[in-house]
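Box 3.1 A note on notation
Throughout this textbook, protein chains are presented in two layers. The first layer is the amino acid sequence; the second is a token string describing backbone geometry. Keep the layers aligned when reading.
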Amino acid sequence: MTTVEARVPARTPARTILLWLEAVLAIGAFGGAAGLVLAGPEMLGDAVVADLPFASPVFAGIALAIVNGLLPTVAFVAELRGARWAVAGHLLVGSALVAWIVVQVAFLGWPPHWLQITYFVYGWGILGLAAKART
């Protein structure tokens, strides 16, 4: 048995679903980030832009790309490569998404938009599957 075969965990259904969830999350985040950076205030409106950190859609877009685009991409690749820390990466992605929505609602105000609720639940789904994948 080679060292690669020894470290690659069996791909469970939970881990397969995590791959799909993280791929969809990353694609959506990169698309949203591009929209924020390229369209800026025209996409959001001046009232929403004023509520963003630093009143900057560019800052928000870069943060979105890093937290919800790059992070799930790294966890996705780690899972594909069979890295031992892949499950920790999935837990981090789920935690980051839940935290992202909490901070977003704090900045943009109550009540949350239906997309925020959807992604909040999405983040908890990733956390639940990652916890299941640990066993």
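The mean pLDDT is 87. The two ends are 23 Å apart (CA to CA).
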